[in-house]
Amino acid sequence: MNLEGSSAVVTGASSGIGEAIALELASRGAHLTLTARREDRLEELGGRITSTGGEAPLLVAADLRKAEDITRIFEESRARWGGLDILINNAGLGRKASFHDGATEDWREMLEVNVLALTVACREALGCFDGERGGHIVNVSSMAGHRIPPRGGFYAATKFAVRAITECLRQELRALGSPSRVSEISPGFVTTEFHEVFYRGDAEQVAAGLPDYRVLDPRDVAASVIHILEAPDHVAIHDVLIRSNEQES
After folding, report:
1. Where in the sequence numbering do the catalytic residues fall?
2. Is residue 178 part of a domain?
3. b/e map of 83-100 (b: 16 or more CB within 10 Å)?
């Protein structure tokens, strides 16, 4: 896909991987709809994009736990840009919540954001894609969707679900003869705010949970997403595992 002039929705765009993907897409001339809960961070990102000569993105503050907010994102994006070519399903979170004493609300939040919101966004994007040209959905998952990390069993369960959703959608698109594509990228350790959220800001636990080697930068993941999007139309890059060269599993 030629990214110049394409229209893209990026969820979870206010920091980390989502922010890095947004900056890469902007540098290639894409029309962007950026969404997250933190409006101030979105505005800061929008300012960075325009200050470097990029087109002003559409900024939509939204809570992806609310289906009506997800629908509104795509309605506003279509009204602004006239169509949609790309969905980057990046929003997600983890909570330290074991099966013995985990809080129901933590499990519910992970399911709502990591699984249900992603699925609703896929549906809304498919309704916006051009019927002849199609579009491309990239689900940002995790290495936790391929193996179970310590202290992260339920989070891993949501990411295994993302793998299943991505493959099911791929099969549906093929059965319909659709030109649209769906891909998944599964990063290992990345320098983002994930661990602060996972451990609820407990600095000691955050430090103990991080490896002592160089981990991925969000820009490393963003570069791989661009590679996926720019693949020729007949090429389906379905699942990319990306991790530090020093990460064992």
Report:
1. 155
2. yes
3. ebbbbbbbbbbbbbbeee
Mind listing the pLDDT tens digit for each residue in 78-128?
A: 999 999 999 999 999 988 878 888 889 999 999 999 999 999 999 999 999
User: How many residues make up the chain in this entry?
Assistant: 249
Q: CATH number, domain at 197? A: 3.40.50.720
Contact between residue 36 and residue 91 where contact means Cβ atoms under 8 Å apart: yes
Axis crossing angle, helix 153-176 with helix 118-128, rounded to the nearest 10: 20
Domain count, the chain: 1
Q: Mapping DSSP to helix (H, G, I), strand (E, B) and coil, where does residue 134 land?
A: strand
Q: Are residues 92 and 113 in contact, defined by beta-carbon separation less than 8 angstroms?
A: yes
Provide the residue range defining the domain that includes 224: 7-242
Residue 1: inside a domain:
no
Specify which residues 32 forms β-bridges with. Answer: 8
In a domain, 2, yes or no: no
Query: Taking all residues of the chain, what is their mean pLDDT, rounded to a whole number?
Result: 93
Q: Checking DSSP bridges between strand 86-89 and strand 7-11, what pairing results, if any?
A: parallel
Token pair of 212 as six digits: 């002592």
- The CA distance from 10 to 25, in Å, is 10
Q: Does residue 133 sit within a domain?
A: yes
Q: In whole angstroms, what is the distance from residue 10 CA to residue 29 CA?
A: 15
Nearest to 107 by CA among 161, 67, 146, 70: 161
| Token pair belonging to 184 | 């998944």
Question: 139 with 114: CB under 8 angstroms?
Answer: no
